[in-house]
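Please fill in the sequence for the structure shown.

STRUCTURE ENCODING:
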């Protein structure tokens, strides 16, 4: 059968493929010098000298991209943890012995996930919208300009604007991170200096465009110099210095999201004829009003359930759901954060819900502008989607599809217990596609012995593995 959906061979060493590799290890013939802290010895084959594992695999696991890949490899485990929690009504967490506050959080979250088919449709739409901050007519026009732009300067200008817009839309989140980092820095300081930092931190105002200038001035003129002096005096080069570096990075992002900077970046684009063909002439005041009136929480499709879920994850990561569950909550938290990575080239959404009393945990991986050649027309792009969902007492499903110009290629893997209903499933899917005006170009319904790896469906996720990686 031809591989119409262009599923490539999974990249060795990613996701859960490590367990499928040959368990016999090669003998290590590398010379390793005895460790002697009193002498400086020549470099050898020790991992700490040459990042041995990273060099052998062509990927530095100490780099930013290496960290991204490592977190991505944990996604299947995070999905398994979430499924177990959802299917048991979080019984394992409750049995660990929790306080009244966390019990209420769990009860409220499970109540929010109760849905009927109509509510599920609205829930799915809001979550997909919330996963993409850069949506709407403005960004559709900008995408059009990017495709037509022959000027490197115009493309660079658009990317600069998008970076500033992204930082502006994340301003509230960045300020929350800054306050959290300052709180953690306090725990590494001596008592007198800690009190001084607390006095400065208390002067930070709640995030708003009006308060940004005061907050930035306080951070750059008082808080960061205060911490710099502390490091100089104490010679503390440990964890606190890493936290201060992270604080300065987030301060830079916070300042980059200043409204005036966003307006200036957008206004500079009007110098290019290709931009003016898509956008009417606007003066600076009109541009400022356009961006000033955006409600970023609403634009991102923010849902009460996601806030409740994140609150629950934080409590679990702090050990409030029992020490034995802390690692699971940390895994889930890292799985949520991967969607914010600059290395994530596709849309990834996790959707837990309880449909008419049946718990379901699902994941969506989506590339709305895939140009890997899945379609018939050379150079054209289509929509590539990988949907995974686990239904209690039914089993695990994979749906992988490619849509282009009204034509659909679709592959479905169903659990073993549904083998007698394969024909019924195939006919049902074909009927759904036809009702929605789609021409079926390829349809395969098979028993799924193994889940489709994300690396096979979206190999572009790992494109940067051979590029230069850096560590901040």
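FILLED IN BY: designer on duty
SEQUENCE:
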């Amino acid at each position: 059968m031809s591989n119409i959906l262009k599923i490539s061979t999974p990249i060795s060493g990613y996701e859960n493929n490590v367990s499928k590799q040959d368990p016999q290890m090669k003998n290590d013939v590398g010379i390793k010098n005895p460790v002697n802290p009193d002498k400086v010895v020549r470099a050898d084959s020790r991992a700490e000298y040459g990042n041995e594992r990273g060099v052998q695999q062509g990927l530095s696991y100490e780099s930013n991209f290496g960290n991204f890949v490592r977190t991505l490899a944990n996604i299947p485990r995070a999905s398994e943890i979430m499924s177990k929690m959802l299917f048991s009504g979080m019984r394992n967490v409750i049995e660990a012995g929790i306080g009244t506050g966390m019990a209420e959080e769990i009860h409220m979250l499970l109540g929010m996930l109760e849905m009927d088919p109509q509510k599920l449709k609205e829930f799915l739409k809001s979550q997909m919208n919330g996963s993409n901050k850069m949506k709407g007519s403005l960004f559709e026009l900008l995408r059009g300009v990017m495709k037509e732009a022959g000027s490197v300067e115009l493309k660079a200008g658009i990317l600069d604007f998008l970076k500033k817009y992204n930082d502006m839309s994340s301003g509230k989140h960045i300020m929350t991170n800054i306050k959290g980092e300052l709180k953690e820095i306090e725990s590494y300081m001596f008592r007198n200096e800690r009190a001084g930092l607390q006095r400065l931190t208390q002067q930070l105002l709640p995030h708003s465009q009006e308060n940004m200038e005061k907050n930035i001035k306080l951070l750059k003129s008082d808080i960061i110099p205060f911490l710099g002096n502390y490091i100089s005096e104490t010679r503390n080069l440990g964890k606190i210095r890493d936290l201060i570096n992270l604080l300065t990075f987030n301060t830079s992002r916070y300042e980059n999201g200043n409204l005036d900077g966003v307006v200036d970046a957008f206004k500079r684009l009007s110098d290019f004829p290709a931009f003016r063909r898509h956008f009417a002439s606007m003066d600076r005041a009109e541009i400022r009003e356009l961006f000033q009136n955006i409600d970023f929480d609403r634009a991102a499709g923010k849902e009460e359930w996601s806030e409740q879920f994140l609150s629950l994850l934080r409590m679990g990561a702090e050990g409030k759901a029992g020490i034995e569950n802390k690692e699971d909550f940390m895994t889930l938290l890292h799985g949520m954060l991967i969607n914010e990575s600059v290395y994530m080239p596709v849309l990834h959404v996790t959707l837990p819900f309880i449909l008419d009393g049946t718990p379901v945990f699902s994941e969506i991986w989506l590339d709305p502008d895939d140009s890997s050649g899945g379609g018939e027309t050379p150079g054209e792009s289509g929509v590539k989607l990988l949907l995974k969902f686990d239904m209690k007492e039914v089993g695990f499903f994979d749906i992988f599809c490619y849509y282009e110009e009204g034509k659909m290629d679709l592959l479905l893997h169903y659990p073993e217990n549904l083998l007698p209903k394969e024909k019924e499933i195939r006919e049902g899917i074909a009927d759904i596609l036809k009702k929605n005006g789609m021409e079926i170009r390829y349809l395969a319904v098979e028993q799924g012995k193994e889940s489709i790896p994300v690396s096979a469906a979206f190999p572009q996720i790992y494109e940067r593995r051979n590029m230069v990686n850096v560590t901040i």
